[in-house]
Amino acid sequence: MSSAPTASTTAPGPTAPAAALPSRFLRVVAWVSFVLNTVIIGTGGAVRLTGSGLGCPNWPLCAPGSLVPTEELTYHSLIEFGNRTISGPLLVSAILVLLLTWRIRAARRDLFAISAVVLGLVVLQALIGGVIVWLHLNANLVGIHYVISLTLVCITAAYLTRMYEAGGPRERAVPKGFAILAHITTLAMAVTVLFGVLTTGSGPHSGDATIQRDGIDAVLMSHIHAWPGYIAFALTLALLVWAAARRLRPLRWIAALMGALVVQIAIGIYQARTGLPPLAVGVHMVLAALTAAAMTVVVLRLKRPATASAAPVAVG
């Protein structure tokens, strides 16, 4: 006579050995990396919006023969140098995350790959920042600089999300149609961010009072930027309703994403109607990164570790 299955045969899977789990120190450093990548968007925005882009006219030195601002330089130098200063701790945190993740790379190849990408982008970002100074705030490079920063916020958010879940194979945790809709929403948000970068690049905040941007109508670009934003909002609303009705795994993060989008749209409308005040533009830039990070978490929550649940995935 066969016996009833034991707890060990019905359990989702074996617990990962302690050596394969992220240490508490790694978790702290990973959070520091995420926060610093977010903060540097704010300080970088302050550099641009206060016209301090050439406050330190040299790179990697601030002024000829001096790593730090000299008495002859203005407060713009302090703003630019403050932004540069954050790059140091940001690089250190990226290196620490990579080294600490190296210890568990056999079990968490996903985390190791993410940490390697983050470090590579941080180094690339610093080099591009130097080239931007050398080329006197070239508009195209300034836009690329922001996009890389936003990408870093998303990737470090992905690291945090995966860090709190088991490694190994993953399985879809939502209906297929829901997953497709989420990816379409991601595309709409990416287009929104792209046009947002172009809109800011064509606006009055060039980063230095002596530099003027020509060739693109800022008013026209603001309208073009708004439409994919409204589409992303409508798609996110559809995701929220669907997730709430079915109690799907990404529900809480979709709700957070919706809240961020509402605030973003409100700030976008305000700044468009008030002549792009610097503070509103700066907040808009930081919130864009956090909104994209929330979208990243939503996408990652579409799947779960294959051992996380024995329940079948909904197909409706």
UniProtKB/TrEMBL annotation:
<comment type="pathway">
    <text>Porphyrin-containing compound metabolism.</text>
</comment>
<feature type="transmembrane region" description="Helical">
    <location>
        <begin position="173"/>
        <end position="198"/>
    </location>
</feature>
<keyword id="KW-0812">Transmembrane</keyword>
<feature type="transmembrane region" description="Helical">
    <location>
        <begin position="252"/>
        <end position="272"/>
    </location>
</feature>
<keyword id="KW-1133">Transmembrane helix</keyword>
<feature type="transmembrane region" description="Helical">
    <location>
        <begin position="227"/>
        <end position="245"/>
    </location>
</feature>
<keyword id="KW-0408">Iron</keyword>
<keyword id="KW-0472">Membrane</keyword>
<dbReference type="InterPro" id="IPR050450">
    <property type="entry name" value="COX15/CtaA_HemeA_synthase"/>
</dbReference>
<dbReference type="Pfam" id="PF02628">
    <property type="entry name" value="COX15-CtaA"/>
</dbReference>
<dbReference type="GO" id="GO:0046872">
    <property type="term" value="F:metal ion binding"/>
</dbReference>
<keyword id="KW-1015">Disulfide bond</keyword>
<keyword id="KW-0560">Oxidoreductase</keyword>
<dbReference type="InterPro" id="IPR003780">
    <property type="entry name" value="COX15/CtaA_fam"/>
</dbReference>
<feature type="transmembrane region" description="Helical">
    <location>
        <begin position="28"/>
        <end position="49"/>
    </location>
</feature>
<protein>
    <submittedName>
        <fullName>Cytochrome oxidase assembly protein</fullName>
    </submittedName>
</protein>
<keyword id="KW-1003">Cell membrane</keyword>
<dbReference type="GO" id="GO:0006784">
    <property type="term" value="P:heme A biosynthetic process"/>
</dbReference>
<feature type="transmembrane region" description="Helical">
    <location>
        <begin position="143"/>
        <end position="161"/>
    </location>
</feature>
<dbReference type="GO" id="GO:0016491">
    <property type="term" value="F:oxidoreductase activity"/>
</dbReference>
<feature type="transmembrane region" description="Helical">
    <location>
        <begin position="111"/>
        <end position="137"/>
    </location>
</feature>
<feature type="transmembrane region" description="Helical">
    <location>
        <begin position="86"/>
        <end position="104"/>
    </location>
</feature>
<keyword id="KW-0350">Heme biosynthesis</keyword>
<dbReference type="GO" id="GO:0016020">
    <property type="term" value="C:membrane"/>
</dbReference>
<keyword id="KW-0479">Metal-binding</keyword>
<feature type="transmembrane region" description="Helical">
    <location>
        <begin position="278"/>
        <end position="300"/>
    </location>
</feature>
